[in-house]
Design a protein that fits this description.
The structure is a single chain. The longest helix is centred in the middle third of the chain and has 14 residues. With about 90 residues, the chain is α+β, with helices and mostly antiparallel strands. The chain is built from one helix and five strands, in the order ββαβββ. The mean pLDDT is about 80. The strands form two sheets. It has a three-stranded antiparallel sheet, with helices on one face. Strands 3-4 form a two-stranded antiparallel sheet. A hairpin with a 5-residue loop joins strand 3 and strand 4. The radius of gyration is 14 Å and the shape is globular.
Length: about 90
Amino acid sequence: MRKQHIRTDPRRQSVEVRIGIVHSPRELTFETDTAAEELRTILDAALAEGKQPLVAFTDTKGKQYFVPTAGIAYVELGGEGGRKVGFIS
């Protein structure tokens, strides 16, 4: 498996990623500092080549996820944006 190093910008806001896995009742959901376009490029390369058995992601806390490319049912990339905190009066 070819490792891809992703540089993250501390000013960049997180992106929510949801990945559906074939034959799994639950989806994998996490937030990452990697830009949505960069994630799409990584996924396109991993799925197009067919040579990568796994694709790796790192969330905002440094936790790594390895997903088998053959088992990916769908990927949903949320928009870039921070969490909304506070009250509206």
